[in-house]
């Protein structure tokens, strides 16, 4: 029997885990699954298996109680074990972990060891919604698959090409030199993946393309891609800066948190929690679910309508700024849960951009294809694309490149 080398990719969110088992030679997906609602009264667990191996994996209960990320990873490990029983001919070659923040230390995929993990743990305060889950996945996999090489792949990697005049903040020099305060950017795996897909779709070399990519999910960020490389992005030192998000405030006058702390006496930890978990859409509407907010707006809910106006206003602001800084835009790309599914948000974000060559086709915007959909009008000078992101596949690609496996 021919042995197939595979990579297991884990993508942990604040209350979810997505995972894929891919063949290294051709990126074919053998198994993919997700657990949503970790820590809630009922988590949703979904698994999809290549038909060749459908007898290997028992379909999980659709709703289960999973209290924390560690428990989630043990559930995922159970799904995996049936593939590695010797009879399947499948060998787990490497495990890839999405890690949100690489700080000033990590600029490429890095093999995990004790020192690397300790450094990642020291960044938890910079991405409190995500890094605890990332770290839980690493530790659990090190325990369950101790003989397998494991790599961290950072969301900040793609943004290492941002020039100094863009990534520096106008703050005291000591903050930058001794405390590494600068723009790092996030969602890099998603921005990188959809840029590559756009190059294929447009049939042009990536290094000749200027793109504006909009990753819109519970977290949201915009990226200006110049000649195929990240040139600017809306998120900054942490994932808190930039666009209005599900639970995060986005751009905010730096004096506001200082003022609130002075007026209320709340601790820095309480303030951080409010900005990261109690702000954004949920602060205006009580919900971070854009589909629910859209439905409420259609029913005349004033708070929901206000939230959508605020959300779209910030999108337009970044699109406009990036169109100017790039000079020439070869495509605007929407991705992520909201970017891929909320036709209203796409339409409103591009509204009034006709004078700048951006025109949406209303019918195409409602009817999307599976992977890449062109939703612009024939008279639009700038293509507008909706591309289904695949951060897990990008993680596999980046690790394969690091290990020279695609030569």
From TrEMBL:
Enzyme type, top EC level: transferase
Subcellular location: Cytoplasm
Domain of life: Bacteria
Pathway: Metabolic intermediate biosynthesis; acetyl-CoA biosynthesis; acetyl-CoA from acetate: step 1/2
Record-marked site positions (Transition state stabilizer): 187, 248
Keyword Hydrolase set for record: no
UniProt: ATP binding residues: 18, 215-219, 337-341
Catalytic site positions: 155
Residues that hold substrate according to the record: 98
Protein keywords: ATP-binding, Cytoplasm, Kinase, Magnesium, Metal-binding, Nucleotide-binding, Transferase
Function: Catalyzes the formation of acetyl phosphate from acetate and ATP. Can also catalyze the reverse reaction.
Name of the molecule in the record: Acetate kinase
Organism name: Methylophaga marina
Lineage start: Bacteria, Pseudomonadati, Pseudomonadota, Gammaproteobacteria, Thiotrichales
């Amino acid at each position: 029997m021919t042995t197939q080398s595979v990579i297991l990719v884990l993508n942990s969110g604040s209350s979810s885990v997505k995972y894929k088992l891919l063949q290294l030679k051709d990126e074919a997906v053998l198994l993919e699954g997700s657990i949503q609602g970790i820590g809630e009264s009922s988590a949703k667990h979904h698994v999809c298996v290549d038909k060749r191996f459908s007898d290997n994996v028992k379909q999980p209960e659709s709703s289960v109680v999973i209290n924390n990320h560690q428990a989630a990873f043990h559930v995922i490990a159970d799904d995996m074990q049936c593939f590695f029983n010797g009879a399947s001919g499948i060998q787990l070659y490497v495990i890839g972990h999405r890690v949100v923040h690489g700080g000033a230390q990590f600029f490429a995929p890095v093999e995990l060891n004790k020192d690397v993990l300790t450094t990642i743990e020291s960044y938890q305060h910079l991405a409190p919604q995500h890094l605890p889950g990332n770290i839980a996945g690493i530790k659990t996999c090190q325990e369950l698959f101790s003989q397998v090489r494991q790599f961290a792949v950072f969301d900040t990697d793609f943004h290492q090409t941002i020039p100094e005049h863009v990534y520096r903040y106008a703050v005291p020099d000591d903050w930058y030199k001794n405390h590494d305060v600068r723009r790092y950017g996030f969602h890099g795996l998603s921005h990188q993946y959809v840029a590559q897909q756009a190059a294929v779709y447009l049939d042009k070399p990536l290094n000749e393309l200027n793109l504006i990519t909009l990753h819109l999910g519970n977290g949201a960020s915009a990226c200006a891609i110049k000649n195929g490389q990240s040139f600017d992005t809306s998120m900054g030192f942490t994932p808190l800066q930039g666009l209005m998000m599900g639970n995060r405030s986005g751009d905010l006058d730096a004096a506001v948190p200082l003022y609130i702390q002075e007026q209320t006496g709340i601790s820095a930890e309480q303030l951080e929690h409010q900005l990261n978990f109690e702000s954004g859409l949920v602060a205006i509407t009580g919900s971070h679910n854009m589909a629910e907010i859209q439905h409420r707006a259609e029913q005349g809910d004033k708070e929901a309508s206000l939230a959508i106006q605020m959300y779209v206003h910030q999108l337009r602001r970044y699109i406009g700024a990036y169109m100017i800084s790039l000079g020439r835009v070869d495509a605007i790309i929407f991705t992520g849960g909201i970017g891929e599914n909320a036709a209203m948000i796409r339409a409103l974000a591009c509204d009034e951009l006709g004078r700048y060559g951006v025109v949406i086709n209303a019918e195409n915007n409602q009817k999307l294809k599976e992977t890449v959909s062109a939703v612009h009008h024939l008279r639009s000078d700038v293509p507008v694309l909706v591309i289904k992101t695949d951060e897990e596949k990008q993680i596999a690609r980046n690790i394969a490149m690091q290990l020279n496996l695609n030569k």
